[in-house]
Amino acid sequence: MTSFYLGLALIMALSINSRFAVVRVLAALLAAVALGFMAWSIMLANLDGSFARAPAGSRLPWLLNAEAVLITLAALLLLWAAPRQGRRNGGSVPGRSTTAAHGQLTRGLHWGSATLIIAAFTMGQFIAVLTPDNAVRAEFMATHMAVGGAVFLLTLARMFERLVRPAPPNGAGAHIGHFLLYTLLTAIGVTGLALAPMPIDLLGLKLPNLPASMIAAPLHRALTALLALLFLGHVYAARRSIRRMAR
User: Fold this and answer.
1) The domain containing residue 196 runs over which residues?
2) Using one digit for the tens of pLDDT, what is the confidence trace for 34-70?
3) Residue 230 to residue 184: CA distance in whole angstroms
4) CA distance 4 to 115
5) Based on the structure, what is the number of domains in the chain?
């Protein structure tokens, strides 16, 4: 499962801004299928009784079902937009960012990170619903930690890229939003490493786990909730920039 999500992120990073229309269309279709797979996994949890065994009063099953609806709508939107990807002019995108345009590297890191953030966020909540004796919980947990580790590394790479390269001008609000987003992603990664019982295996790369802490778990959950709110705000506020990223 880890290979699937990392491979999906790599494909999104390399293809969503391709100069070739057929590649962009196939990338949009693949993203729609992946989102559909995530929504279907949540729906199956309703059918196999996984949500029924959640702790009494837990709102996670309700939230996950709401997310399944949103994910399904996003998949349908991608399917609707796929023909437009084939009609638009891919143009020439610079390899590195300039003050006039985001470069291929910045765009790739952006879309790859977004893919993995959505996967890690949804999977983390799904794990919280599964009972410890559930047969698939260990696999989901290992994938969640690996994907979260990849997000942590990509966030560090994005911050470094932002420091050393220029970028198209943005207002103060966008700068504050990006700063908060990078800060939250870094803090979530650090708390995740503190929660890991052993070094995280990221396709052969070992990310060291940090010393355990009593505040790591509640802090990880609180930061993740803040990230969800900020992520939604970022998508809404940056819709013009996102369209630029896709051009």
Assistant:
1) 2-246
2) 899 889 988 888 888 878 777 777 788 888 888 899 8
3) 9
4) 12
5) 1
